[in-house]
């Protein structure tokens, strides 16, 4: 991997995103609007929103980045752009890390906006520092990006890429503790939940919401980052230059 090439890939992706206003709006505005919608739904029961709000701050960046990254990468491959890029002195890790770096930068803005809306406009109780809340949001988004890059290697069409959502994302949302605390799950499902990366992303957000301590949060962020790195490594192995 060459840092200069990786940075060039990241700049290229950011330039494309800047020109694609719909995707940019989906990345930056949609998570905020979804939070406002859920706050409105639970307007008469604010304690419910206080309980699920931190988990949603972890889930929304993960979900959106997974969807956008998997479809965008597949489009690059099916259009032949990826094959042309690989005629240049660029490795697979350069491509994947460039994408992760670009979407990580977007994730920083997304996390800042979503955290500001939640803690400021919607009065979500957060005991931990706001900066760390943003860090966790960025880690969640990079995890979604890494998994999106990984699963895009197994899809042939954009429709197939979307089909990975119920297979990869939805089970993690169901088991992360959003619907039911994990210790209330059947033992087998609790064991599965404990090896899913989104579980630790949600734990970090909930820890920030309930206490000012940061030790457990950094541990969870480290686990999420390790999952993201592993997904990028697997993506480098499975990435195809074109769709057959």
Automatic annotation (TrEMBL):
Gene Ontology molecular function terms on file: ABC-type transporter activity
Lineage: Bacteria, Bacillati, Actinomycetota, Actinomycetes, Propionibacteriales
Family annotation (InterPro entries): ABC-2_transporter_component, ABC2_TM, ABC2_TM_bact-type, ABC_2_transport
GO biological process: response to antibiotic
Transmembrane segments: 24-42, 54-74, 95-118, 130-154, 161-180, 221-239
Family statement: Belongs to the ABC-2 integral membrane protein family.
Primary location group: membrane
Membrane topology qualifier: Multi-pass membrane protein
Name of this protein: Transport permease protein
Subcellular location: Cell membrane
GO cellular component: ATP-binding cassette (ABC) transporter complex
Pfam families the record matches: ABC2_membrane
Keywords: Antibiotic resistance, Cell membrane, Membrane, Transmembrane, Transmembrane helix, Transport
């Amino acid at each position: 991997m060459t840092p200069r090439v990786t940075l060039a890939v990241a700049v290229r992706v950011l330039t494309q995103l800047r020109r694609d206003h719909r995707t940019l709006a989906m990345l930056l505005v949609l998570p905020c609007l979804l939070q406002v919608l859920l706050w409105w739904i639970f307007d008469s029961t604010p304690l419910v929103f206080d309980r699920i709000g931190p988990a949603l701050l972890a889930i929304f960046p993960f979900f959106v980045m997974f969807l956008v990254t998997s479809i965008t990468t597949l489009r690059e491959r099916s259009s032949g752009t990826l094959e042309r890029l690989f005629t240049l002195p660029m490795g697979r890790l350069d491509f994947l890390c460039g994408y992760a770096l670009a979407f990580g930068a977007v994730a920083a803005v997304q996390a800042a906006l979503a955290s500001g809306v939640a803690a400021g406009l919607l009065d979500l109780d957060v005991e931990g520092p706001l900066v760390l809340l943003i860090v966790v949001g960025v880690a969640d988004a990079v995890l979604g990006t890494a998994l999106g890059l990984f699963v895009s290697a197994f899809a042939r069409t954009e429709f197939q890429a979307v089909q990975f959502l119920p297979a990869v994302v939805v089970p993690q949302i169901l088991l992360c503790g959003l619907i039911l605390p994990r210790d209330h799950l059947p033992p087998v499902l609790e064991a599965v939940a404990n090896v899913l990366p989104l579980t630790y992303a949600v734990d970090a957000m909930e820890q920030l919401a309930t206490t000012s301590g940061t030790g457990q949060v950094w541990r969870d962020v480290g686990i999420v980052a390790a999952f993201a790195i592993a997904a990028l490594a697997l993506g480098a192995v499975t990435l195809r230059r074109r769709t057959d």
